[in-house]
Design a protein that fits this description.
The complex is a heterodimer. By secondary structure, chain A is mainly beta. In chain A, the strands form two sheets. Chain A has a three-stranded antiparallel β-sheet with strand order 4-1-5, with no helix packed on it. In chain A, 20% of the residues are buried. Chain B is built from three helices and 27 strands. By secondary structure, chain B is mainly beta. Chain B has a 19-stranded antiparallel β-sheet that branches. In chain B, strands 15-20-17-18-19-16 form a six-stranded antiparallel β-sheet, with no helix packed on it. A two-stranded antiparallel sheet of chain B has the order 5-6. Chain B starts with 10 loop residues before the first strand and ends in a 7-residue tail after the last strand. In chain B, a hairpin with a 5-residue loop joins strand 17 and strand 18. Classes of the chains: A mainly beta, B mainly beta. Chains A and B meet through strand 2 of A and loops of B.
Chain lengths: 50, 400
């Protein structure tokens, strides 16, 4: 899962490292922290061209 | 079997926008230890029911939420703990050094969280009852004894869930308002009938006291299944280093102004082998109508005591004790230079009037004589105050 630092602070996050404001990083499954928001990944559907 | 190491725990905290109204903690401090707990004060039901054994059940008593948290003092966490204990005045300065003054007065209430393995133990309406300062292996150690008006940690499902659902209800065994303590945006973990747990992000905490709402999820869970508040992964924002005994200067003189002058340089400061003090709010947490827990916490008579140990060199402290002579003490502890400027982190505490209750000068073979003193902090009628504190750090006053 990808998470985004939604604050204006830089954080040290155990298991991830330093995350700057606005930065999007990969987080372990189950990650939960009020200073971060999940980034939804958009699955591209294959378009079949007839 | 899954086991959990205490080392992975955290202390999360945040000042409450509205007193005693929970808020999700977003500031994290490394803990040394904590022993905060809810005491439901169960007692055996001793009513005569015809059994040949002491009791067939437990009855609830007055509920308390209290205990100690221990941290090494840095200028950021110390300011939060003081904010739970004293009244913060207007912050001055800027990003290269904010100065936060604290005086005797009404403290702010906080929501705090402590991680216990997978779940977060949350307390809200937290205020400081006593705050103890000790030097431990150079570091200043803070032991905060807190009280709270409520807790949320875990509960059970009141009604079964099956299929697409957008809300659930908590069982009422612990409290008649079992969703109290939760906040929009919290993540709770609901035990499914499969045994797995489903993360649920709350979009509402309903006024009925039992319902929480969330985006549509497919959940199959029976009444009585467990629910807990999911622990956060902590995020640390540029932690300051613990303050050190060696970077502290203590001035002791006849007035606070002269104590300030004495604490201004190593040449005039008094070297102390030991200094500890405890600031006490004597918080009232007596039961009142409206909740099984304390409804509100009021500071009562404030007091403070100091323990001082210094090498005996002359008779002034013996005389001060015998004749109950007023002294004043100022301690200034410096930390690192705050990024972007030349201002150092700083903790200053001033006791405007102290007097020794005891002054021991024990003789022991092979040992120097010490003045070992238990001091009472007193209200100074000249300065019209007993204690004042200031903190210089990198954190804006809006965080407090």
């Amino acid at each position: 899962m990808k998470i985004k630092n939604k604050t204006k602070k830089e954080f040290i996050v155990p298991g991830i490292g330093i995350v700057k404001p606005g930065e999007i990083v990969e987080a372990p499954k189950g990650f939960h922290n009020i200073n971060f928001e999940k980034v939804e990944t958009i699955k591209k559907e294959e378009v079949k061209i007839k | 079997m899954t086991v959990y190491l205490g080392d992975k725990s955290y202390l999360g905290l945040k000042v409450e926008a509205f007193e005693n109204t929970p808020i999700t903690p977003d500031i994290f401090c490394p803990l040394i230890s904590e022993s905060i707990k809810t005491n439901i004060n169960y007692t055996a039901d001793r009513r005569m029911k015809g059994y040949d054994f002491k009791s067939d059940d437990l009855l609830r008593g007055n509920r308390k939420h209290e205990g100690d948290l221990v941290v090494y003092a840095d200028v950021d966490n110390m300011a939060h703990l003081l904010n739970m204990l004293m009244a913060k005045g207007a912050t001055a300065g800027g990003a290269t050094g904010y100065t936060h003054p604290f005086t005797i007065g009404t403290p702010k209430s906080y929501t705090i969280e402590v991680q216990k393995g997978p779940y977060a133990q949350r307390y809200f309406g937290v205020k400081m009852n006593t705050l103890r300062f000790d030097f431990e292996e150079q570091k200043i150690k803070l032991t905060g004894s807190i009280k709270a008006v409520g807790q949320f940690s875990a509960g059970v499902l009141k009604e079964a869930l099956a299929g697409a659902v957008t809300s659930l209800k908590f069982g009422h065994d612990y409290d008649d308002m079992p969703n109290t303590g939760l906040v929009d945006g919290d993540v709770i973990c609901v035990q499914l009938d499969s045994g797995l747990y489903q993360d649920v992000t709350l979009t509402s905490v309903n006024a009925d006291g039992e319902t929480v709402g969330f985006g549509s999820l497919s959940i199959v869970a029976a009444a009585g299944n467990k629910i807990y508040l999911k622990a956060q992964t902590p995020s640390y924002a540029s932690l300051s280093n613990p303050l050190l005994q060696g970077n502290s200067l203590v001035g002791i003189s006849t007035t606070s102004a002269l104590a300030d002058t004495a604490a201004a340089s190593k040449a005039t400061a008094t070297p102390l082998s030991e200094l500890s003090f405890i600031l006490n709010n004597n918080l009232r947490d007596a039961p009142e109508t409206g909740s099984q827990s304390p409804v509100r916490l009021f500071p009562q008579t404030r007091e403070a005591q100091l323990t001082i140990s210094r090498i005996f060199e002359e008779t002034s402290q013996h005389v001060a004790w015998l004749n109950s002579i007023k002294q004043a003490l100022t301690m200034i502890t410096y930390g690192a230079v705050i990024t972007g400027g030349a201002i150092k982190e700083q903790f200053t505490i001033k006791f405007h009037k102290i007097k020794p209750i005891t002054n021991d000068e024990a003789n022991e073979v092979g040992s120097l004589i010490f003045d070992k003193q238990e001091m009472e902090a007193l209200y100074d009628t000249t300065d019209a105050k007993a204690i004042e504190v200031s903190i210089v750090n990198k954190t804006a006053g809006t965080e407090y």
